[in-house]
């Protein structure tokens, strides 16, 4: 019997978690998170991780199973998630996956791209450039070498920019030329459900969510993480802005306004990423769950 992974994607604050729980309850199955920041147990409020009530409404996996001090990347997640899916599919025909981290979603559904080995001194040089010349310099360099990647990755994330640049410089070919090659086949079929809304609605929902996070104690959560602010996991919207406030560089009001602005930018990049998949079934965020289930059943045949 064919096994199905239902992958729920869309911009932040659109309602993916709520839909995933409804679908998990309908299919009597589990949820795998593909949100690269909800993995970390110290980052609960700022990542809008599922609440205790939501975690008990359906069984979740890959939520708060790591520490920010752990080295955990997309390659490790791909291996862990596929191993776990094999276990779940022994007793279930359907599993739900939800998350807004496009690269992590693709790692499970399609497999990671195979990049060439490059000289390690290139990354060291780029990290030096980051410190001395700033992120914008690296962004402009990437735009000149590979505009397709510049337009599709999390351009405000220096680690992603440096990774793309080191491939461009080390191979002499655009990073994007290594994307979407033939990958390992999956032993399940993926049905991707996308949630969408008008931009103004998405932005309003983001602004409201940020205000709710602040009211729920986000600043205290970030204070506790101040000793670890240099870690990659914490180079994250909602955390890096408040580090600037706590370090005396910004006012609190300005930091909060920057969180909202940067989250809106992130949502725009998420949509750009997810819209590349032509097989995604898109629904308005207010769509009736029964209509979504009917579409899923048609795809299942």
Automatic annotation (TrEMBL):
Keywords: ATP-binding, Magnesium, Nucleotide-binding, Transferase, tRNA processing. Residues 35-38 are annotated as: Interaction with substrate tRNA. It catalyses: adenosine(37) in tRNA + dimethylallyl diphosphate = N(6)-dimethylallyladenosine(37) in tRNA + diphosphate. Pfam families: IPPT (PF01715). Its cofactor is Mg(2+). This is tRNA dimethylallyltransferase. GO terms for molecular function: ATP binding; tRNA dimethylallyltransferase activity. It comes from Wocania arenilitoris. Its EC number is 2.5.1.75. Catalyzes the transfer of a dimethylallyl group onto the adenine at position 37 in tRNAs that read codons beginning with uridine, leading to the formation of N6-(dimethylallyl)adenosine (i(6)A). Substrate binds at residues 12-17. ATP binds at residues 10-17. Belongs to the IPP transferase family.
């Amino acid at each position: 019997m064919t096994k199905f992974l239902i992958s729920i994607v869309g911009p932040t604050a659109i309602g993916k978690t709520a839909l995933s729980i409804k679908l998990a309850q309908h299919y009597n199955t589990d949820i795998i998170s593909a949100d690269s920041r909800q993995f970390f147990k110290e980052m609960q409020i700022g990542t809008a991780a599922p609440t205790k009530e939501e975690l008990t409404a359906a069984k979740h996996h890959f939520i708060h199973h790591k520490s920010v001090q752990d080295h955990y990347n997309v390659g490790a997640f791909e291996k862990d998630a596929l191993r776990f899916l094999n276990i779940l599919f022994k007793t279930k025909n359907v599993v739900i996956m939800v998350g807004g981290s496009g690269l992590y979603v693709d790692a499970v559904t399609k497999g990671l791209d195979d990049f060439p080995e490059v000289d390690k001194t290139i990354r060291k040089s780029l990290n030096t450039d980051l410190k001395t010349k700033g992120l914008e310099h690296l962004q402009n360099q990437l735009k000149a070498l590979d505009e397709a990647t510049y337009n599709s990755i999390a351009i405000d994330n220096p680690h992603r920019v440096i990774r793309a640049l080191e491939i461009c410089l080390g191979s002499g070919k655009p990073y994007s030329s290594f994307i979407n090659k033939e990958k390992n086949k999956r032993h399940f079929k993926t049905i991707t459900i996308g949630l969408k809304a008008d931009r103004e609605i998405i932005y309003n929902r983001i602004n409201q969510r940020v205000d709710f996070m602040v009211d729920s104690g986000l600043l205290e959560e970030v204070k506790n993480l101040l000793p670890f602010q240099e870690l990659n996991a914490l180079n994250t919207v909602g955390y890096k802005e408040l580090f600037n406030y706590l370090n005396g560089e910004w006012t609190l009001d300005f930091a909060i306004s920057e969180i909202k602005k940067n989250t809106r930018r992130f949502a725009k990049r998420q949509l750009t990423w997810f819209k590349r998949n032509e097989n995604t079934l898109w629904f308005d965020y207010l769509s009736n769950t029964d209509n979504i289930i009917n579409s899923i059943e048609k795809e299942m045949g």
